[in-house]
Amino acid sequence: MAAAIIISKKDPAGMNIKKQLIELQGFAPAGRIFDSHEIYQKGGHLLYTLSGDTIFAEHLDQQLSAEVLIFATKHQSQSGIPSLCLHAPGNWGRAEHGGTERNICIAPASLLKKGLQLLDKKNKQYHLHFEVFQEATHHGPTLDLPCMFIEIGSSEKEWGMELPGRIIAETIVELIKNPIPPAISAVAIGGLHHLPNFNKITLLDPSIGISHGIAKYSLEDIDEEIIRQAMERSEPPASFFILDWKGLKGEKERILNILGLFSLPVRRTKEWAGGNEDK
Fold first, then answer.
1. What whole-number distance in Å separates Cα of residue 190 and Cα of residue 166?
2. CA-wise closest residue to 72 among 21, 134, 124, 131
3. Could you tell me if 157 and 243 lie in one domain?
4. Rounded mean pLDDT, 222-245
5. What CATH number does the domain containing 139 carry?
6. Cβ neighbours of residue 264 closer than 8 Å, sequence gap 6 or more
């Protein structure tokens, strides 16, 4: 799996992770330039620096030779809670932060699952005490290769901290150098943006990985066409849906009717130990 790791010159967390990849993980100059910045390399994997924001790097996959794109960036939230997180990019509705309206990217469920497991393990190993989670699918860019964002959150203080940068760098290297156990893809629907009940499943169940997550604030954008995208733009293609039942607000009947148009099983988070549903 040849990976392209992508950071932005404008992103302090990305630059922190880049420093760790070079100084501690053996990425060395490749003798080439991209977007006015030197490319770094480790084996068959390349580290690119963009001049602009990663979320606006539309169709970047058409310019790179890679099988998967990993964006290493900052995570910003109003809560300001220190965190290590990851997610697939895409827009269920309007494209307010890059990407294309009603277009989601190809979400590598196995890579996201293993990434979450590694972040959780290293967070405990290094006694960092950050929150670790996979987020709902959100923001740009528009891409047609499997891709994911892996992030340090949630404020300027954490973006520049050496240890979170080191953990993200180590996680990236472990993801790209070792074979990834195949996961069964599931599309998660309902609940909070940071998918707390689905993260429990990802960490507890040895076989299931969440490809795309649809938080309750995006439910109004969900219809047959976008659900079909979520199924098909999961890698591997989605095998079933998981619902955070109480996190569907007043949309339960409508969502079930849409999912009933497809042949995939529908399950609920409460089927897994620890998967309590939102109230």
1. 32
2. 21
3. no
4. 98
5. 3.40.630.50
6. 231, 238, 239, 240, 241
Strand ranges inside the chain, DSSP E: 3-8, 28-34, 37-42, 45-50, 68-76, 83-87, 90-91, 103-104, 107-108, 131-134, 147-154, 184-189, 208-214, 234-235, 240-243, 266-268
Domain endpoint, select from 145, 161, 180: 180
Asked whether residue 167 falls in the same domain as residue 200, the answer is: no
What is the spatial distance between Cα 99 and Cα 111, in angstroms, rounded to a whole number? 21
pTM of the model: 0.96
Residue closest to 73 by CA, chosen among 9, 13, 139: 13
What domain range is 231 assigned to? 183-279
Buried b (16+ CB within 10 A) or exposed e, 50-80: beebbbbbeebbeeeebebbbbbbbbeeeee
List pLDDT tens digits, range 191-219. Answer: 999 999 999 999 999 999 999 999 999 99
